[in-house]
Amino acid sequence: MKIYIVEDYQQLSAKAASIVASQVILKNNAVLGLATGSTPEGMYSQLAQMNREGKVDFSEVVTFNLDEYLGLSPDHPQSYHYFMHHHFFNHVNVSPRNIHIPLGQAKNIAEFCLEYEQKITEAGGIDLQVLGIGANGHIGFNEPHTYLKLQTHAIDLTEETIEANSRFFFSPEEVPRQAVTMGMGSIMKAQRILLLASGKNKAPVIKETVSGKITTELPASFLQLHRDCTLILDKEAAALL
Ligand code: GLP
């Protein structure tokens, strides 16, 4: 793992944006795996600015999002569809036909998941996968468990994740109990991985991710096995390293 420790969230966002932008400059039709959560918001805003200034062109870029809540419609303000359009897609020249986000309201979810995997394969696989991390070690919505799934699948969220994500909803009861997520294999097959973490509440999980046991009880620990995984951490998230 390559680890960059930066001063604060502002620097984290700037560094992450420059890594994503350089990927797109190197390969104008790059396939990007994208993440939601509050951590990458600053990166998206900097990428949008670089796009406005003509420094990076997303017109040929293909995107695949990691996950979505099951049951939420794409226009629900807490859906990841809404998040991605609000924070990124509405502000850059990415082509709508190149945007892929798991559908939380798919009629046949198992079939949808298979098709999602096929689309990633047909696009040539993911060049650069951006990840956040849950305080319990989840990546995407691959939650700690006795086993992990390889491919895109539906999953029950843990109480910890429901609680953590309830800050975006009016009450914890409103948080969907299930989600659809790329699997560990979908993520680990990416050519490059870029994980972002900010704040002191992420320090313990970052320590485990970097130097703890590789275990299904901490899905992010599998990133130790990836051959090109970069972590960008602010000082608080890196405090226990
Ligand atoms: C959600 C998402 C994850 C994200 C995590 C951390 O559960 N499914 O992809 O990494 O939240 O979010 P935050 O960046 O807000 O801490």
Walk me through the structure.
With 241 residues, the chain is an alpha/beta fold. It has one domain: 3-Layer(aba) Sandwich (Rossmann fold). 30% of the residues lie in helices and 17% in strands. Strands 1-10-9-6-2-3-5 form a seven-stranded parallel β-sheet, covered by helices on one side. A three-stranded antiparallel β-sheet has the order 4-8-7. It is globular.
Q: Estimate nothing, just give the exact number of structural domains.
A: 1
How many extended strands? 10
* Sheet with most strands: strand arrangement: 1-10-9-6-2-3-5
* Percent range of helical residues: 25-40%
Report the CATH C-level class: Alpha Beta
Please state the overall shape, judged from the principal axes of the Cα atoms: globular
Q: What ranges have pLDDT less than 50 throughout 5 or more consecutive residues?
A: none
Largest sheet: 7 strands, parallel
Instruction: Briefly note the CATH topology name.
Output: Rossmann fold
CATH architecture: 3-Layer(aba) Sandwich
Termini Cα gap: 13 Å
Rg over alpha carbons: 17 Å
Structural class: alpha/beta
H-E order? EHEHEEHEHEEHEHEHE
pLDDT averaged residue by residue = 97
Please indicate the percent range of residues in DSSP E strands (runs of 2 or more). Answer: 15-25%
DSSP helix count? Answer: 7
Query: Compounds present?
Result: 2-amino-2-deoxy-6-O-phosphono-alpha-D-glucopyranose
Fold topology:
Elements: E1 2-6, H1 9-26, E2 31-34, H2 41-52, E3 62-65, E4 67-69, H3 80-87, E5 99-100, H4 109-122, E6 128-131, E7 153-156, H5 159-165, E8 178-181, H6 184-188, E9 192-197, H7 203-211, E10 229-234
Parallel strand pairs: 1-10, 2-3, 2-6, 3-5, 6-9, 9-10
Antiparallel strand pairs: 4-8, 7-8
Helix pairs in contact: 1-2
Bound molecules: 2-amino-2-deoxy-6-O-phosphono-alpha-D-glucopyranose (GLP).
2-amino-2-deoxy-6-O-phosphono-alpha-D-glucopyranose binds at residues 35-39, 66-67, 132-134, 140-141, 161, 165.
